[in-house]
Amino acid sequence: MLLEALAPVDAQKTVRAWHGAHSGAHYSIHFLCPSTPPSHCLQSAQKQHQECRHRRLDAGSPDCSSEKTTAWARYHHRMESLQKSKIRGTLYQPPTLASLQRLLWVRRPSTLNHINEVWPNLFLGDAYAARDKNRLVQLGITHVVNVAAGKFQVDTGAKFYRGLPLEYYGIEADDNPFFDLSVYFLPAAQHIRAALSSPRGRVLVHCAMGVSRSATIVLAFLMICENMTLVEAIQTVQAHRDICPNSGFLRQLQVLDNRLGRGTGRL
To answer: Which residues are responsible for catalysis (predicted)?
Structure first.
């Protein structure tokens, strides 16, 4: 009688010991009813152990290898999708204003000329460059975007370029932190994109100094049309020309960066 009473305990110990030795497996054994005979429990455990052994032996077969490869491919694809969603999706956090200003204040050899090519066929310059018709012709400029248009600013306009094979696009903007330049981000970016897509298209974007208003429009273009973050756009432009958008324009670019980052991708 004592041996019969201890038999279920011994059976449980046997199965638990086997299960501990195979803790990496994704299956377990459960005693569904206390009335189940101990011998039946041991037979069930041995049967499951044999089945699992066959599974491990079959794992080396070509079919199993193919399934594992497919599973890994799906896993890596899923992880890449999650990583992209973290960067471009709702988890994206735009940089702070202070970090952007520190990025703009990094000391580097001076690259401030009257005009610089900051992206293929896209030039950033000042009022002097915009008025130098011979230089524009020499560079093959086909489109001019004036972000300081107006009577009391860089008053060129379409008449100024009459006789030259180029198109003029004017934005009357003030270099003031309270001026809302963001309303021009999308139309200006679309205009620049269309200009660059035209045959032999080469675009000059300028304001008075070529560091704030025009630089902000170029940054917005790179973010909207070239799938860049704000930091990436600043680094791209600063590799060719020193820029310094005012604090108000930087905040407007932050808003744009945040909106683009929260979508499924950039526009």
So the answer is: 207
